[in-house]
């Protein structure tokens, strides 16, 4: 199996046709077709169903594609690192984060790094929390930012950030006039939210069940920004994490506090047995500082509280309580 075969396979998967792949690779169409046939002959099974100029990937092709992409990305990382070494520079900083955190926190944190510490090149991978963990375990990235749980023996959790979820409504929605939206006022409203049932979605579901109307969720997505867009379209009231609401603002909507505090937890993690660069250490602290500036009510917790935080029930918002305490950047509850 040769590199040009993997590149041809990846291009066909991306383009959806041999002709499109040839255009991407700047090779001849017959040449790409022969390369794919050679690859299929070598591995012993068909990768595509042929239908004229277009091809349809087989189930096996999709399984192989995930591996091939990892390999090709790895080769690109090696290339970038080799060039950095030749320039006597630090290698690129590689970050994996869930999409909301990648968009809201990472660019702002990177802008805080001092010139002598900031990397010349940065790669940011937006992925699910499970994929963030996998990227760290495979050493594909240097640092990960993801929602809890993040309890893995091979990872070092540096701290946990907690901030309350919010409601996002269309600007012309009657609820937009209230500074705080009471959960009971959503009883007869459509609700849009995130869909991962083992992370934030679980706590949102618990809050709605306590209010007696769990069936009100009519729009679920793996990306909270999609829920916000549903609110913009007057399709639903979005109950989402504050990183999305405050970090990627959308025209035509307003963000309001909820009377029930639904905690949004995320952490910053690195490989436990991998030495950290000055850029990684600086980014870890910058993420903390940006979190406190951007997210109202943000609290930093010691990593040792991971399990305790996840076991605490959703509670009504209180004044001067632990959950309304805002700790300075670097301080831990």
Short description:
The chain has 333 residues and is of the alpha/beta class. Helices cover 40% and strands 23% of the residues.
Structure description:
Pfam families: HTH_1, LysR_substrate. Residues 301-333 are annotated as: Disordered. InterPro entries: LysR_HTH_N (IPR000847), LysR_subst-bd (IPR005119), WH-like_DNA-bd_sf (IPR036388), WH_DNA-bd_sf (IPR036390). Keywords: DNA-binding, Transcription, Transcription regulation. The longest helix has 28 residues, at 59-86. This protein is of the alpha/beta class and 333 residues long. Helix 1 (3-15) crosses helix 3, helix 1 packs across helix 4 (59-86) and helix 2 (18-25) crosses helix 3 (29-43). The protein contains twelve helices and 16 strands. The strands form four sheets. The chain has a six-stranded mixed beta sheet with strand order 4-3-5-14-6-15, with helices on both faces. The protein folds into three domains: 3-84, Arc Repressor Mutant, subunit A (Orthogonal Bundle); 90-162 and 264-324, Periplasmic binding protein-like II (D-Maltodextrin-Binding Protein, domain 2, 3-Layer(aba) Sandwich), CATH 3.40.190; 166-261, D-Maltodextrin-Binding Protein, domain 2.
């Amino acid at each position: 199996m040769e590199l040009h075969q993997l590149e041809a396979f990846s291009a066909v998967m991306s383009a959806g046709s041999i002709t499109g792949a040839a255009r991407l690779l700047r090779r001849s169409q017959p040449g790409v077709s022969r390369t794919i046939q050679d690859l299929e002959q070598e591995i012993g099974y068909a990768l595509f169903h042929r239908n004229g100029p277009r091809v349809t990937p087989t189930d096996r092709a999709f399984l192989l594609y995930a591996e091939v992409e990892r390999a090709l990305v790895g080769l690109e990382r090696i290339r970038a690192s080799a060039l950095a070494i030749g320039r006597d520079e630090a290698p690129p900083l590689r970050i994996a984060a869930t999409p909301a955190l990648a968009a809201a926190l990472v660019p702002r944190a990177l802008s805080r790094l001092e010139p002598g510490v900031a990397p010349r090149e940065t790669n940011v991978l937006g992925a699910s929390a499970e994929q963030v963990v996998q990227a760290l375990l495979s050493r594909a990235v240097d640092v990960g930012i993801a929602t809890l749980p993040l309890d893995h023996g091979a990872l070092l959790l540096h701290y946990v950030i907690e901030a309350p979820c919010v409601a996002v409504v269309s600007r012309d929605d009657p609820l937009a006039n209230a500074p705080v939206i009471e959960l009971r006022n959503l009883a007869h409203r459509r609700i849009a939210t995130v869909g991962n049932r083992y992370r934030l979605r679980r706590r949102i579901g618990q809050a709605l069940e306590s209010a007696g109307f769990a069936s009100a969720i009519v729009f679920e997505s793996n990306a909270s920004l999609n829920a916000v867009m549903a609110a913009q379209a007057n399709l639903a009231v979005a109950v989402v994490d504050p990183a999305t609401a405050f970090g990627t603002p959308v025209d035509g909507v307003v963000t309001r506090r909820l009377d029930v505090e639904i905690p949004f937890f995320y952490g910053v993690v690195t490989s436990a047995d991998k030495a950290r660069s000055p850029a990684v250490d600086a980014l870890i602290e910058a993420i903390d500082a940006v979190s406190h500036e951007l997210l109202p009510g943000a609290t930093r917790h010691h990593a040792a509280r991971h399990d305790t935080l996840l076991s605490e029930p959703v509670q009504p918002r209180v004044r001067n309580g632990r959950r309304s305490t805002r700790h300075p950047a670097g301080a831990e509850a």
